[in-house]
Hints:
By secondary structure, the chain is mainly beta. The protein has helices at about 125-130, 135-145; strands spanning about 5-10, 20-25, 45-55, 60, 65-70, 75-80, 95, 100-105, 110-115, 155-160, 165, 170. Strands 8-9-10-12-11 form a five-stranded mixed beta sheet, with helices on one face. It has a four-stranded antiparallel beta sheet with strand order 1-2-7-4, with no helix packed on it. Strands 3-6-5 form a three-stranded antiparallel beta sheet, with no helix packed on it. The longest helix has 12 residues, at about 135-145. It starts with 6 loop residues before the first strand and ends in an 11-residue tail after the last strand. About 25% of the residues are buried. The mean pLDDT is about 90.
Amino acid sequence: MAPWDGGFTWAADSLGRPWIATSDQGLGASVWWPNKDTQADEPDEGQRTRVTVPDPMVVVANGRLTARTANPDGTTTFEWTVTSPINNYGVALAIGGYDRFGETYQGEAGELTLDFWPISYRLADARRQFAQVRSTLQCFEHWFGPYPWYEDGFKLVETPYLGMEHQSAVAYGNGYVNGYLGQ
């Protein structure tokens, strides 16, 4: 079931830690942040997103992590930068107890970084399931052309809802099974 009301999904992982993700499919991004809310508009210069959270939470967003600053008050500020034009409804935030692993993929437009952000205790599940990403990208690039955001990388981010196609930060919540919820 899609959680498209309110702009954010507020949840807890199975360890009881806060788990928060933007969710605005069909509503428009102004449901969670002020902007010129038209899906046809994309800023030409990309976007920078800065979010401060209590330690040890992690923020994952579109683009590349360009700064991670530990603050003296027990918080950390994460800064993510998108260099490609991005429509506002595709801007995403995910906040939780994340772990990360990554690799590179030699694609049609060169080297593409692949980053995976599962909830920490799901790391082994993510490694097993996301092994399919390479062959999926190879198939899609063969049939549809190069992945459009090489500069911003590719990432899958586990979310407390089923998922959404956020630019360079795809929300994933299918429970680490093939098919729609394993069907």
